[in-house]
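Milestone 3.1: sequence recovery, worked example.
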């Protein structure tokens, strides 16, 4: 009796269940809308940890999603500079000093780039001149060979 029922269930799974799964999958994925990320609020009753997690850096969970899971107390990772956590904010004097150093470095870099570009241009011009000189020498050698061949032909004609 098991043999005649097996064919019926095989047909039902192939022609009923599999198409139903495919249709429902298309329906779910076509109607799925991604929600916007909610604003981070550092509630006092949440994110309380007496000791860090034993994996990674101790602040992220095992299945941490950097887009949807915030890091206490600062917020989402793409909104927070983690290297500045626990440090004092930069003063205007320090900012001006840092920007002046950057300007000096930038000028120095541009000067070296200009020198490098000039050197490359000079090398290209030198190689172009050398290529022209070699081409002229090859043409001269070719003309000399043609003259020699013409002289040989004239001699052989005169001898006959």
């Amino acid at each position: 009796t098991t043999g005649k029922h097996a064919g019926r269930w095989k047909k039902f799974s192939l022609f009923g269940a599999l198409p139903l799964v495919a249709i429902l999958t298309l329906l779910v994925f076509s109607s799925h809308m991604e929600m916007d990320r909610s604003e981070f609020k550092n509630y006092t009753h949440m994110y309380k940890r007496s000791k860090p997690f034993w994996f990674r850096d101790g602040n992220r969970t095992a299945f941490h999603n950097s887009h949807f899971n915030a890091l206490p107390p600062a917020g989402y990772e793409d909104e927070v500079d983690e290297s500045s956590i626990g440090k004092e904010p930069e003063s205007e004097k320090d900012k001006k000093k840092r920007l002046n150093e950057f300007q000096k470095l930038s000028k120095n870099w541009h000067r070296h780039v200009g020198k490098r570009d000039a050197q490359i241009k000079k090398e290209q011009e030198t190689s172009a001149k050398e290529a022209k000189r070699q081409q002229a020498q090859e043409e001269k050698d070719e003309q000399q060979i043609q003259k020699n061949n013409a002289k040989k032909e004239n001699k052989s004609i005169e001898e006959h």
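The radius of gyration is 40 Å. The chain has a mean pLDDT of 85.
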